[in-house]
Design a protein that fits this description.
Layout (H helix, E strand, L loop, with lengths): L2 H19 L4 E3 L18 E4 L7 E11 L3 H21 L6 E13 L2
Parallel strand pairs: 3-4
Antiparallel strand pairs: 1-3, 2-3
Helix pairs in contact: 1-2
Length: 113
């Protein structure tokens, strides 16, 4: 893997982490994915960056835990909001053109009703 690819994965993972850190009630969850060939950036557990594809673009996967007092509709909105925040951070860092997609995987939900 070329140093440029490793560096880009690192920048994307740190950008995604920055967006999550500012979101109340959401934390990144370190997760191992079977048969994944170096998709994870060691700097940011819970963020997996795959790629580049033939077009030179990456996919970013966030594994999160949600702790909130919310309804299921609010959780869906929060997930979409988180994805929007990640895209905004990538645009701010001028990385968005290098990203194919951002996926959010909810590993755990703790809801107080």
């Amino acid at each position: 893997m070329s140093p440029d690819v490793v560096e880009m994965k690192r920048h994307l993972a740190i950008g995604a982490e920055t967006a999550v850190v500012g979101t109340r009630g959401i934390t990144l969850v370190p997760t191992a994915i079977a048969s994944a060939s170096y998709p994870r950036t060691p700097d940011v557990p819970g963020v997996w960056v795959r790629g580049p594809d033939a077009a030179g673009r990456y996919s970013v996967e966030l594994h999160i835990a949600i702790k909130a007092s919310a309804t299921s509709e609010n959780l869906l909105v929060d997930s979409d909001n988180l994805r929007s925040l990640v895209w905004a951070e990538f645009r701010r860092r001028e990385l968005a053109e290098n990203v194919e997609r951002v996926d959010v995987v909810v590993e755990d939900i703790d809801i107080a009703v």
